[in-house]
Structures are given as structure tokens and as C-alpha cells.
Amino acid sequence: xxxxxxxxxxxxxxxxxxxxxxxxxxxxxxxxxxxxxxxxxxxxxxxxxxxxxxxx
Amino acid sequence: xxxxxxxxxxxxxxxxxxxxxxxxxxxxxxxxxxxxxxxxxxxxxxxxxxxxxxxxxxxxxxxxxxxxxxxxxxxxxxxxxxxxxxxxxxxxxxxxxxxxxxxxxxxxxxxxxxxxxxxxxxxxxxxxxxxxxxxxxxxxxxxxxxxxxxxxxxxxxxxxxxxxxxxxxxxxxxxxxxxxxxxxxxxxxxxxxxxxxxxxxxxxxxxxxxxxxxxxxxxxxxxxxxxxxxxxxxxxxxxxxxxxxxxxxxxxxxxxxxxxxxxxxxxxxxxxxxxxxxxxxxxxxxxxxxxxxxxxxxxxxxxxxxxxxxxxxxxxxxxxxxxxxxxxxxxxxxxxxxxxxxxxxxxxxxxxxxxxxxxxxxxxxxxxxxxxxxxxxxxxxxxxxxxxxxxxxxxxxxxxxxxxxx
Lengths: 56, 406
Prior knowledge:
The complex is a heterodimer of chains A (56) and B (406).
Chain A: H1 2-55
Chain B: E1 2-4, H1 15-50, H2 52-60, H3 66-114, H4 134-180, H5 182-191, H6 196-211, E2 214-218, H7 220-231, H8 237-249, E3 257-261, E4 266-272, H9 278-289, H10 298-306, H11 317-324, H12 326-342, H13 354-365, H14 371-378, H15 385-389
Parallel strand pairs in B: 2-4
Antiparallel strand pairs in B: 1-2, 3-4
């Protein structure tokens, strides 16, 4: 009983650690994407203003 | 080795059950590990798919320079690579846990169970050092596969043992009925010199012998060991092991054994774990019915010995010695009796004639008998057949001169 549970508990702990690490990586990826999405939005705004200027 | 005693309380807890339990636990752990591994794999897949669309949009956008796009792709790739590394690391940790657990808990049993392949894991501490065991874990996988196969083998053996038990119970019942038959009793009465009371006692004793019979199922080593100790009388442990090895090498291990256990005051037979050979079961049960030589009347023993033909056939000295024993002769004669009846050559209890003899020999020439029956035909002087199967009017064998072996 004890050994089986110990091994099962260890597996659960390892999976929890792995999940935490994966969450961190997910955050890291999100930050990169957000950074570029903001950059794109900024540029869209600038482009839009420029185009308005021209039309005026 | 499994003990099967229909009339008694069973069964000692044995090694096989213990190993089976250990394997069950190991396989349960493996199942948990497998399930967890699948979940982890799914996380990696989800991660790769989750932002696929937006990443592609960024890459396709006209608002980024090629250099910026390259930089973006590079940074995303680094993260994806980290998830893969993380997954690999997790996988190694998982296997390290399973193998380490197995080795620390059950190392002896597992080593016994699957032999040399697990010897590599005796230094189980190394498996606790996660990250350094990737290659070894592949071998761990193989070991676990072997465990699964061993479990499947044990289950098959268990089923075969169950079949064997049914066979033994059926044959035991048939032999019991046979001993209680009128024809058998009549012959027994002749064996007992016509004495009705003696014959009743003999019949009762044979039934009692079967009622208290103990049946053991053993593996090759169990059979060899019992034979070496009980049959050959070897007592020194080193000599026993040497003899067992020799028997195994020569593939000369008995297919069944029967002996009388003085301490338990009962007859014991041992059969292979997966015995589906009814001839062997019959053979050993017949031995049990007379407790070997113990319950065979003296005149019958003499007659069985005198009718033995020790020349003109190809048997070793040891075989001849064994085949000459009254209990071995009697068992083989009883088997021949059954087969003559089954093959329609002669009904049990029917008078044996020259015609029966010719039919029997013709059948023998075509290879129609089992080994036991053949042994009896080959080791019996021809002129004795009619006398053995019928009443023999010679005073030297029985008090009243008549004998007919049951």
C-alpha cells in the first residue's frame, strides 16, 4: 500500500511541477505575442492617421 | 507449486501468488504513469495549437519588417523548444519514479521473476537521479513489458491449473466408481483368496486412500526435486541440486509422481502445473488407490513380479528396475484394462481369451495404446496375459489358487 501510494504521489507531484513549468512557458509565449500584437496595433493606428492626413 | 486437496482445507500461500501481487502493483503504477504521461503529452499539443492562428497572423502581417518577423519566429521557437524539453524531462522523471519504486520495493521478487534482464537495475539508486537515466529507462520499458508478459503467462498457467483440477476431479470420480464396481470387487475377492471380508476391507481401504488423497501441482523443479529426494533417495543438498540439473539437461523429469506420506498418513500425488495429460492423472491416481505397493495383496505382487519380462526389449537398467515394481506393473495393467475396454477389444470383467490377445497385439502393432499400456504389453511374458486377466488356477499365487488382478 505504502509503496504504491508513494510512487503514485510522486507521479502526481512531478505532474504538478510540470504543469507549473508549462504555465510559465504559456505566459512567456503570451507576453511575446502581446508585445507584437501591440506593435501591430500601434502601426495600424499610425497608418490610419497617415492615411487620414493624405485624404485631408 | 499449488496444493489441491479436494477434501481438505487448502492452500498454502505460495510464491506464484506473491509474484502475481507484486506484478499487479507494478502494473498499476505503470498505468498511473501512462495516464499521466498522456495528459502531459496533451498539454504539449495544446500549447502548440493554442496560439497558432494569432502567431500566423503576426507572421503574415505587412506591418512588420522581415527582420522583425524573424526575431518573432525565433523567440516563439525558443519557447516551443522549452516546452518540448520540459516534457522530455518530465517523461524521464516519471520513469525514474516507477522504476525506482519497483526496484526499492520489489527488487528481489522482480529479479527472480524476470531473471537477468533486471539485474541491470539492482543498483536502483541511480534511477533516482533523474535526468541521467534516459537510455537506461528504455531498458526499464522493456523490463516492464516483460513483467506484463510474465503476468499473462501466470494467468495462462492459472487457467491451465483450473482445467487440471477439473480433470483430476473427474478422473478421481471415475476411478472411485471403477473400484466400487461389481467386476472390480469380484477380482479383488480373487486377489484376496476368495475371502469376502478381506476383499471388502481392501475395497474400502482403496476408497479411503482416494478420499484422503492430496494433489500437488508443481513446476519442473518441484517434480524433479521430489523425484530426486523421494524416488532416488538423495539427501545431500548439493547432490540434490546437481541431480536436478542433470535431469533437466537430459529432459528426464517425471511427468507425475505418487508417494505415501507417513507423517500425514495419506497418499500424495504431484502433477505438472498445466497437466492436461489424462494418462498421467490416471496413472498417479491408480498408484494412490493402493498406496503404491502397500495395499497390493502379497500373491498379486508375486504374480506381477513373476510375469515380468526383463529381456528382449529396449529399456535401460533403471527403467527395468522401475517397471518391475508391483505398483508400476499394476498401474500399467489397469491402464491397459481401461484401454482394452475403451477400444472395444475387451470389456472390463469379460474373460480374456486368445482372441482378445490377438486383437490386442494387432492393435499394439499399429501403435494404438498409450505409453503405460505399451509398457505393460512389452514387459509381460506372453503366456501370463490370460492368467493375469483371468482367474489363475495356481495355488502358488493365492490361498485358494485363484487370482485375478483388479
